Amino acid sequence: MTDQSSFAARRADFMDRIGGEIAIVPAARESVRNDDVHHVFRQDSDFWYLTGFEEPDAVAVLDPSHPDESYVLFVRPKDRETEIWDGYRAGVEGAINDYGADAAYPIADLDKVLKERFIGRRTVYTPMRRGTFSQRIAALMTGLRRVAIRYGRPVPDQLADASPVFDEMRLHKTADEIDLLRKAGEISALGHAEAMRFARPGIQEHQVAAAMEYVWRMHGSRRNGYPPIVAGGVNACILHYNENNASLNDGDLLLIDAAAEYGYFSADITRTFPINGRFTPEQRTIYDLVLSAQNDSLATAVQGSTMTSVHQASIDTLTAGLVDLGMLPGPVDRARRMNHFKEFFMHGTGHWLGHDVHDSGSYGIDGKPRRLEVGMSFTIEPGIYVSPDNPTLKLSLLEFEQEDWTERRMMMGAAAAKKLEAKERDAAGYEEFEVPAQFLGIGVRIEDDILITEHGTENMTASVPSDPDEVEALCAEAPTLPFFG
Ligand SMILES: [Mn+2]
Fold it and tell me: What is the pLDDT of residues 64-84, one digit of tens each?
């Protein structure tokens, strides 16, 4: 597990990156589920990254120019009565003795102490992705300024975003972090393997989820990386399906996008397999195409490449394959120019992976795709979803440029950009196209977790098979877990 020295090393690095300025970083807040019951608490990833402190209602202050209190924690104070009801608190004593803070204060003193610390400073860093908290800091600065100007005292007039500082640090994984990420991948794969053994016609989606979660908890994972998607048959065509309350049907596929969190690192795996253990020829055809797209993306995922190239490889393979199967009108280069693949593949091919399943970090630098470097981790997850409700495609004849879309969305906002695009599509016209009936209702995604290392590209989740013959062999094995039905 991550020990205190690695948090201290991150804080030192973070302080280097903000120069002599001060940074204020808030913990996650508890959220009410109902009455006096809260949702299960999970610490904010940025806050965890710097502190290793798991309580809500806390704030970390990093103040590299302070002579002896460069790391200060504001925490819930010890309170015997409250602790009997709601659990242990480290308190100010624990924050100093166990979490390495140079000083600690009760959270109620935050504004008062910050005002003192702000004297003589020009810039205050805070993660702007925590919107309401950065607004609170901005309000504090404004209030302080009005008084300070009167007395000629210098106080900060600039609020700077700490989120990109976290992004750059979190994007590059250290050896210790990679160990945890690999472990998250390994145990998540064990759960997927059990799901292949465990699933059978007649049981419920959430029962398959339970079998996977049992495996993960037993291997030391305290929680899932994200809500599991266990989608039988046509449910696979709903991308973020997580009702998980349908019965599994003989002859359908089961798409499972689910993974464990381990040591605050999330894996992210999708496998699709036949519920009765044998692919139909149509299912196998679609499956093989998605798998070859994933392999082609994997081949481009090398040091120096970009996530755009990784995505492009899947788009090219899927487009050619879909035309070949008669699922899109050809020729292939025309289908490419019109982005027809979006009829069946609506999401990106991958995203950064780390403390959060869709981890923070920019995909571009100066408007250009950033290069993959050693220590970066991401998913590769092409898919094909053939909605049963959409047998007649209405294909737009508009030739579409991805760059234009990004630029527009930035300048005019997503809703306005979408509206303008719809207008252009209408102007360019449409053609209708019948999807071959035998493919309707099939949804397949295959997703693995990738790491760029000095020795090449590593698939951290390859231990659960994606080769269709190996998948069928695993489905044929007896489950290791009992079914209580
Ligand atoms: Mn994913």
Answer: 999 999 999 999 999 999 999
pTM of the model: 0.95
The answer to whether 381 is a known catalytic residue is: yes
- Please identify every residue whose CB atom is under 5 Å from ligand 1, which is an ion: 268, 379
Say how many Å lie between the CA of residue 237 and the centre of ligand 1: 15
Compute the distance between CA of residue 203 and CA of residue 208 in angstroms, rounded to an integer: 8
* Whether 340 is catalytic: no
Q: Are residues 279 and 323 in the same domain?
A: yes
Give me the catalytic one of 3, 36, 116, 432.
36
Closest residue by Cα to residue 317 from 384, 378, 254, 256: 384
- Which two structure tokens, joined as six digits, stand for 222? 């305290």
> Is 336 assigned a catalytic role?
no
Q: Measuring CA to CA, how many Å separate 333 from each of 144, 263, 328, 341, 438?
A: 61, 46, 12, 12, 25
Q: Are residues 216 and 126 in the same domain?
A: no
Tens of pLDDT, residue by residue over 407-433, are 788 888 889 988 988 899 899 999 999
445 is catalytic: yes
Same domain for 102 and 159: yes
pLDDT in tens, 271-289: 999 999 999 999 999 999 9
